[in-house]
Amino acid sequence: MTFQNSFYNLLMSGNEQAWTGTSWAMEYGRMFEYTHAQVKQPFETLDDKALQALMGLPTLFTYEKYLNASAHVGRITSINRRQREFAFTFAFDTSVAPIPHALFMNLLNNLDIDPKWEVNRSHWAVKNVNLADVLHRAGLLATGALEPLRPPPKVFISYSWDSPEHRAWVTQLAMMLRQNGIEEILDQWHVRLGEDLANFMARSVRESDRVLMICTETYVQKAQQRQGGVGYEQMLVTAQIMREVGTAKFIPIVRQTAQPRQLPDEFAGRLYVDLSDGPEQHENLLRLIRDLHNLNVPLPPLGQRPF
Q1: Is residue 298 part of a domain?
Q2: What are the Cα distances from residue 10, in Å, to 44, 76, 232?
Q3: 223 and 280 share a domain?
Q4: Same domain? 106 vs 158
Q5: 79/202 same-domain check
Q6: Which one of 106, 137, 168 terminates a domain?
Q7: Fewest C-beta atoms under 10 Å: which of 67, 202, 223, 258?
């Protein structure tokens, strides 16, 4: 299904914090409200194919009328099913400035939005409107096209359950990365009761862009001795490294107290990130975030030859 130029998602919320982060949720009962029956038809199964098609549409993130807040243009980057709602992540298109509320209200007719009832109801609609064309004619978009956004980097966090404190630290790290536009695969968030853990680990290593190995002393010991889940993940990692010797997919993250720092044998000689407690922890975290986004450290300008 390809509807790139014909349809757009309208996400409207009455919560003033809805579009200030990178994730939100919408109740199943609010799906396809104010959507024409024929427009809804290709998506209403809400199976994996339909969700993928919805993520392919440009999206207008708006607030209910009484909040008097600006609207934003972007994309839905992931959708997860929950018991009563869809949880999704999103990103704004930096080529389109926020749309002031007054201007948005003037565009309601062109956007196929009911000015009386729809602007006062949190919901998810799909509209049979070329959003890029409307924005272009309103002077909000330089060209008549909205390019697909690059999906956020996806990382799998591999760690050992050393202690409740360490698990909480890993969760905080995942939340910090998520706040900086990085999608995580974390067992605490993504493993369901009764799920096959070996299959989850293999799928996570395979489908992620990068793998963060949280190397505490306990993690290194279990990796060396091939114990438990850490040992199984290490076998998966070793196999991929053997296939791709030069890969930079796997990043050792050191969180240790003793010196010198320890790494599993497979990572000896590889550059690691030290997130152990200390004055350099914050700068090292920023370095990790830049690398996960494939942002190079800017080089100083090259000077002229002195002679």
Answers
A1: no
A2: 15, 11, 44
A3: yes
A4: no
A5: no
A6: 137
A7: 258
Percentage of the chain with pLDDT > 90? 45
Identify the helix (H) or strand (E) that includes residue 223.
helix 217-225
**Strands (DSSP E) along 14-58, which ranges?**
23-27
- The DSSP H or E segment spanning 201 is helix 197-207
In three-state secondary structure terms, 185 is: strand
Which of the listed ranges 107-121, 155-169, 210-224, 258-272 does the model predict with the highest average pLDDT? 107-121
* Strand locations in the chain (E): 8-13, 23-27, 59-63, 72-81, 85-92, 123-127, 154-158, 183-185, 210-215, 250-254, 273-274
- pTM comes to 0.59
Residues 177 and 63 in one domain: no
DSSP 96: S
**Residues across the chain:** 307
What's the domain count of the chain? 2
Q: Are residues 196 and 121 in the same domain?
A: no
Tell which residue, 63, 66, 55, has the closest CA to residue 18: 63
- Average pLDDT on 70-76 reads 94
What residue numbers bound the domain in which 226 lies? Answer: 154-292
Q: Are 140 and 97 in contact (CB under 8 A)?
A: yes
d(CA 86, CA 239): 36
Regarding whether 111 and 159 lie in a shared domain, the answer is no
Residue 146 lies inside a defined structural domain of this protein:
no
The per-residue DSSP string of 101-153 comes to: HHHHHHTTTTTT--TTTGGGS-EEEEESS-HHHHHHHTTS-SSS--PPPPPPP
